[in-house]
Amino acid sequence: MAQPTPHRYSLQIVVAVTFVAIIALILGGLTWFNHRSMAQLAHREAQERFTDLARQIRDEARDQLASAHIFLKTIGETASPSQPNDDMGRLLVTLLRTLQETTPSVLGVLAGWPDGSLVLSQRLVNDAVAPGASYEIVISTPDSGSGQFLRRSIFLNAQGEVIRRNAPVLSDYDARKRIWYQMAAESRRPVTPPPYRFATFPEIGVTVAQRSAINPGVVFGIDVLLSDLDDVLSRMRTHPRQELALFTVDGELAAHPDGRKYRQGNTPTGPHGLPLMSALPSPLLRAIAQAYQQDGRAGSRTIHTGSEDYLVRYEPGLADISMVTAIAIPQSAIMGAANDMARRLLTMGFLALLIALPIVALAARKITRPLQTLTSAVSRIVAFQGDGARPPPSHITEIDALSGAVGGLQLAMNNFMRYVPKQIVRGIVRDGVQPSLGGVRQQTTVVFSDIANFTGIAEQLPPEALTGLVSRYFAVISSALVDSGATIDKFIGDSVMAFWNAPDPQPDHVARACNGVLNAAQRLEELNATFRSEGLPELHTRFGVHTGEAVIGHVGSFDRLSYTVLGHTVNIASRLEALNKQFGTMILASGAVRDGAGDGFIFRDVGLAGVRGASEPVAACELVGRAGQAQAPDAGSGALASGISGHVNPDVVARPDASRPAGAPV
């Protein structure tokens, strides 16, 4: 199963995206870290503010009760519970008037007895009941006849003078059943029951109580209004959306900036006559109460109401009162500065990214451009178009090293192809298969060439001059043959061996060989003209051409291979080259070549030739030229062979040497 082709991307794009991603991650990380740090700091500051506010609320409530505690202790230790009720009432009024000077929130002073009797002195909010009255003394005593209590009132003016007395009426008020009496009777210390709504005054308050030191069955109490805490909470609001509330553990609202509005409305009340927070019109107050009722713990938590989250802190209201202080503020208000800073950082980061983009693009191009050059160089090497030049140097060490390696590869490949046929090298690179020993039998056309009288020429020239002469000669011969698709097998002294139809198949390999030989002969004529002009000896070449089956492949040892052709076909081509001297020809081909070349060439039969190693003579013919080209008067052989032996008699050329029987081995 073929593997799916992976997606490929431009290195320049990858580098640019990587740089941008790194910059974005750094900016995003710094923004996140800064926002997180500022958020932690903002929450810590909010918690500190919450703690401070809760402390202030406790202090305000404690201040309102502090004077009451002092007076209670004084009353409990000095007041005689056995004095007449009227006298006790006047005493309590005197204490109330004194308390009002220091604690305006005190509403009344009272005393309760073990038989349920009550003496209460309280200030009046208005004189609607008794015009001119500022205080009222309420005396409640048991009625033995009815089992209830007789209640009578005495009204006093601001100076404490009696201005009116009301006749006794039946009442079911029993001091023993009041929570303040029950708690104080069981404790030696002052007690403060949960806040409640006064029956005679439409406000919230508490009754601070303590039993008498003289008669433990008698309990003295002071009614203290807590409505002033509404104003305290309102003053402590530092944010328009901040919420402050003081409520009982049962969920009744005791104090709130809008406490009076909630207490005077139609909101359902709890057991103490206070509005239930769960029934208030404010979703936030309902959520605050609900969150506390779930676990009843102090501390901070986040609640969600509407479309916003709130941070809420719960603190005990007073150590001796079962109340809770709740402080809530929107998360957006806490995180305002942090969010603003995050937005500024993101904006600055975005601008920095925009500025960095062209720089990143330029840097990516600087990095990838040398790699693109190297890629092109490698592609040219693979396509065998490399010139061996080293790619330009780079300031980046790794790229410069790679550039040197590619330059070395170009040089090695170019030099390698000088020793190994280019077609072989291309096949190895294309197939990606390591060559191995062995060959295949197939049709091929083989050409041998040889320089006439090379020994004599070599004796006349110095080695250096001879080497230059032969190199120029081989360049002309090999280029002509390679241009026709030949594979140069080897150079043997002054001889060249080449073959066609391998390693790449060539259906017209015979015609290609004929064209290559004719082109080589033509180029040699031009080269000899140059040699003559330079005063150098001319080099006349004879060619032998044959086609047939041969074994083509790699031969040699495991550490050195040669791609070559082996077999009788090679032997015949070599012998035909040698017969040129005997027949006075320049290009001698076999009949198989004549039959396989097609109609595009002109051949001239010269007879049968016996070839050493062959069981039958081989038909030999001279390759004169291409069809349609003008021929010399002597049928063409003189035109090609004139440089070898001068004018040759056609009769001699047309038949073998008369001194040797036809078909005799050469």
Keywords:
666 residues; alpha+beta; Beta-Lactamase; Alpha-Beta Plaits; 3 domains; nine-stranded antiparallel beta sheet; eight-stranded mixed beta sheet; 17 helices; 44% helix; rod-shaped; HAMP_dom; Adenylate/guanylate cyclase domain-containing protein; Adenylyl/Guanylyl_Cyclase_3/4
Short note summarizing the structure:
With 666 residues, the chain is an alpha+beta fold. The chain has helices spanning 11-78, 85-102, 179-185, 228-236, 259-264, 283-295, 331-334, 336-382, 397-419, 422-431, 454-460, 463-483, 509-533, 568-583, 591-597, 637-645, 650-653; strands at 106-112, 118-123, 135-142, 149-156, 162-165, 169-171, 196-197, 204-211, 219-225, 243-248, 253-255, 299-305, 308-318, 321-330, 438-451, 487-492, 495-500, 541-557, 560-566, 587-590, 601-609, 618-626.
